[in-house]
């Protein structure tokens, strides 16, 4: 198991020093919330490091699974289950699945009718950006503001 150094808890002396410094700096009415988020972020840091390290350990598994998937996809008849035996493990694969895609969008529009087609049609924003001019985009895209990016850091 990986061990990470954790930051020591805030000492009473540090709290007094921060309180004294805080008197010189205006404190927000949300100071308690900011401090809670900061403390929880520091507490979570080593856990996030462990998660990242464990995810890295899973990379070889993902690569080998993809390799085995490719081998099994290239073998045998599509509608027959397959089995590969190793010295210790066995791999089994079922029938190949089916993937569908629309090959004639204009016919779909014709068969559905324009009204129904327009209700269910999907257009990606990236495609609108790619194919329309700036003034055209202004007419068809609604823009709204998102939340702010928030970062919490320990006061030095």
Neighbour order of strands in the largest sheet: 1-2
Distance between the amino and carboxyl termini:
32 Å
Count of beta strands: 2
Using the alpha-carbon principal axes, give the shape.
flat
What value does the average pLDDT take? 88
The structural domain count equals: 3
- Helical stretch count? 7
The major β-sheet equals: 2 strands, antiparallel
Specify Rg, calculated over alpha carbons: 29 Å
Give structural notes:
The chain has 156 residues and is mainly alpha-helical. The chain has three domains: 12-57; 59-93, no CATH class; 105-140, no CATH class. It is 54% helix and 5% strand. The chain contains seven helices and two strands. The chain has a two-stranded antiparallel ribbon. Strand 1 (82-85) and strand 2 form a beta hairpin. Helix 4 crosses helix 5 (114-120). The chain is flat and about 75 Å long.
Put the structure in a nutshell.
The chain is built from seven helices and two strands; from the N terminus they run H-H-H-E-E-H-H-H-H.
Task: Walk me through the topology.
Blueprint: H1 12-24, H2 31-57, H3 59-73, E1 82-85, E2 90-93, H4 105-112, H5 114-120, H6 125-131, H7 134-140
Antiparallel strand pairs: 1-2
Helix pairs in contact: 4-5
Supply database-style keywords:
single chain, 156 residues, 3 domains, 2 strands, 54% helix, flat
């Amino acid at each position: 198991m990986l061990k990470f150094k954790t930051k020591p808890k805030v000492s009473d002396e540090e709290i007094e020093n921060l309180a004294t410094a805080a008197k010189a700096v205006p404190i927000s009415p949300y100071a308690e919330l900011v401090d809670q988020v900061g403390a929880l972020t520091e507490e979570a840091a080593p856990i996030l490091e462990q998660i990242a390290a464990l995810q890295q350990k899973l990379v070889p598994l993902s690569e080998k699974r993809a390799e085995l998937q490719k081998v099994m996809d290239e073998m045998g008849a599509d509608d027959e289950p397959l089995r590969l035996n190793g010295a210790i493990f066995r791999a089994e694969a079922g029938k190949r699945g089916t993937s569908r895609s629309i090959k004639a969008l204009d016919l779909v529009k014709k068969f559905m009718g324009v009204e129904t087609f327009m209700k269910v049609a999907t257009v990606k924003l990236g495609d609108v950006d790619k194919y329309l001019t700036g003034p055209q985009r202004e007419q068809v895209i609604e823009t709204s503001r998102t939340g702010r990016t928030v970062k919490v850091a320990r006061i030095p």
